[in-house]
Amino acid sequence: MYSIDQLEAFVATAKTGSFSAAARSLNKAQSVVSQHVINLEIDCNAALFDRSGRYPQLTQAGHTLLSHAQVLLAQHQRLRSCAQHLDKPFISELTIGLDEGIPFQKLSSMVNQLEIDFPNTTLEFFTASSIDIVDLIDTDRAVTGIIFSELSIPSHIDCESIGAIKFDLYVASTHPLAQQESNNLANLKLHRQLLMRSRNNKSSNFQLALSPEIWYADNYYVLLELTLQGNGWCLLPNHIANEYVNSGRLVLLPSEFKDMGWHANVDVIQHHRYSLEPMFKQFRHSLRQLLTP
């Protein structure tokens, strides 16, 4: 019968590329990890790694088993987390991380309702880039995050899509790009780009560096101000830019294409240990209405 230790050793070896690295990641002796994998291969009656080279390589059987093992370990982690918190008192604090590119207006009314339903709850808010918020959830500094979709989300964080926000390319009305029509993205490379980046120097999936000259910020309102001052072109959420477009200070990048914008998906993320708590379940349910008209 397969054990959790065997599956952990197998997945860690596949992830790290060697038995020694897997042992370090699991804080176990290499001989223990190797034996767990050998025992799993015996139980499966199949070789999971090809050991003929310097580093073990997954066999076809190993590739087939890997995804199932990862799912089972994720479920085991949830079970263990649930069991550890069965005797814990009700959590009375909600820490919310919000990407500033996501509108706050509707969120405030949802928070007011949460206060009515859970009057003894302490609320705390963070604003940061989506990537930084994932880190806040991962380290338990925040409980709930409202972010733009990221490809890399740890397996112990639950993720639910609640809609999308439209982004467009903007420049100041005084910028040279405002006076010419761009027929392709290559034209943008001749001008400075203003780009969103996290505090650990990572960019979101849809924030692509195109220009050889880039200024960075971790805040859309800083990027907006830099754009208004004519420092470069920028991808901004429409709801942040609209006021300045209407006043004539900001313009959509002139282009022969009718629509060069992006729709960025918005997700709610929570550490799975909190997912079944009534307060967090209700808040997630309310957030599904956040981006509806």
UniProtKB/TrEMBL annotation:
Keywords: DNA-binding, Transcription, Transcription regulation. Gene3D superfamilies: 3.40.190.290, Winged helix-like DNA-binding domain superfamily/Winged helix DNA-binding domain. Residues 1-59 form the HTH lysR-type domain. Pfam families: HTH_1 (PF00126), LysR_substrate (PF03466). Signal peptide: none annotated. GO terms for molecular function: DNA-binding transcription factor activity; transcription cis-regulatory region binding. Belongs to the LysR transcriptional regulatory family. This is LysR family transcriptional regulator. It comes from Shewanella livingstonensis.
